[in-house]
Structure formats: C-alpha cells, structure tokens
Amino acid sequence: MIKIGEKIKSLRKSKSISQETLAEYLSVSFQAVSKWETGAAMPDITLVPAIASFFGISTDELFDFNVYEIEKNVEKIVHEHKKYYDTDREKCEAVIREGLTRYPGNDTLLNCLVGVIPVPERAGEVIELCKALAESTRFDDIRIDAYRIMAEAYASIGELSYAKDAIEHIPEIYFTKLGVMADLLEGEDKLYGATKQRTLAFDWLITSCVRLAEYYKEKGEVRKAEIQLTMAKNVLLSAKDDFATKYTRSLYEAYGEGMAELEELLADLKKAP
Question: Is residue 130 a contact partner of residue 155, using CB atoms and an 8 Å limit?
Fold first, then answer.
C-alpha cells in the first residue's frame, strides 16, 4: 500500500501544521487525518488533489512518484481508455479507475474520469470530482475543462443557475493554439494546426446553428429556426468532397451522419404550429 499517510504526516510536521488545521481545510474530522497518518485508512480519492494543493505540491509528489515515469504511464492509460470512448463507456471508466489505483489523485486521469461518468445518472459524483479538480489542479487546461464538465453535469439535472456559475469560470478566448499554429508556423506544423482547427470550427458552426434554431423555435420564430437548420445542412453538404489528412478524417466522414438528424429537425419544424 502506498504510504500516503506517512507523507502527509511528514509534510504537516515540516510546516508545523496541526491535524486540526489540515482537517478544517479539507472539511473532515481531525480523527480522519489521524487515521490516514497511522495507516488505518486512506483519504478519499476526491480529497487527494486538495491535500496536494494544501501543501503546495503535485499529487505525484504527494505519493513520491517519479514524475517522468508517471507521465509516460499515464499517457498509456489515457491512450487505452480512448479505444473504448465511443463504444463502451463502462470499460472506458474501468480503465481510468484502474489507473487511479496506481496513481491516486492524478490530475490527468481524474480529468478523463469526469469525462466518461454518465450524466444525469451520476451527475452528483461528477460535480464533486470537478469541484475538487478545479480547486486543486495546477494545470489551467484541466481546471477549465473541469468547469466545463461541471456545467454540463449541472445542466443535465436542470440546475441551470449552477451551470451558469461554472461557465463564468471559463475564460472567453478568441483564438486557439491550433489557430495560431496554422497562422504562424510552416510545413507539418501548419498542416496539423489548420486541419485540427478546421475540424473544431466546422463542428461548432453546425452545432451553433442548431442551438440557434432551438432558441428561435422556442420563441415561435419558425422561419428563423428553419434558416439556421438549412444553413447547418448546407455547411455539412459543402464538405462532401473533402478528403482525409494524416491528422483528421474527412469532414463529411466525421460529421456526415448528422445530416439525418438535421433533416429530422427540419421536418419537425414544418409540423410546428
């Protein structure tokens, strides 16, 4: 068993911090901290990032892991879980959870975990994990993604005010790393940035048109909703002759299945009073 209790005790004493102070920060009893330090119990997985944050170290350092080795192994675990992402979410989650038994509290693995737990069925679990991750991670991309997933979980259970609050923590950025790569670099870097950015932009353009159609339909402005759905359909059709690259599938191959959904939405719209 990983001797995390001994590490917590050592860190706490080196900083002259009492069990009560640590317990108060973590919203647990000092008896719980005592049990960790004696090895009678282990901290809950959701508390590990907060413990590391309290002492100003990474979760890897908390467990005395070799950072270089863990990065390589975590990358392998993430790659493995992606194999099942679109076909078997239960298997996907199992792969990540097994990884977390080896590397408890690892930010990257926790970020993957909250992304595969089903909502609204287990929205509460996702929200609590996201809160812990957002408050403790030292990585901006993981923090932002945690707030995004938290917002989605809240929205899935109808808690829109909480979803809005989570969204407020996401910065408004009008450029991306991929876009900047495409603009400034050359050769393979340009190809990678441009093709990846194009895929994201294509997806978001179609999705945004659909969301606008939903809005206008709710307002009873059927003609405006129809225009947005038709625009989405035409955007999708514009990619019919697109081709795959070494980094992406063709846009039509990736999103062509959405045509049936767009046709269905348009048909339903025509039935609207």
Answer: no
Two structure tokens written together for 42:
């282990």
**Check whether domain 67-167 has CATH 1.25.40.10, yes or no:** yes
Q: Which CATH number fits domain 177-271: 3.30.310, 1.20.58, 1.20.1730, 2.60.120?
A: 1.20.58
Counting Cα atoms < 13 Å in the Cβ hemisphere of 1 gives 12
pLDDT value at position 2? 52
- Mean pLDDT split into 10-residue runs, the chain, 273 residues: 78 90 91 90 84 83 72 91 92 95 88 96 96 87 96 97 97 93 96 97 97 96 96 96 95 94 93 74
Cis peptide before 49 (omega within 30 of 0): no
Instruction: Say which residues have a Cβ less than 8 Å from residue 130's Cβ, sequence separation at least 6.
Output: 114, 146, 147, 149, 150, 153, 166
Domain-by-domain residue ranges, the chain?
4-43, 67-167, 177-271
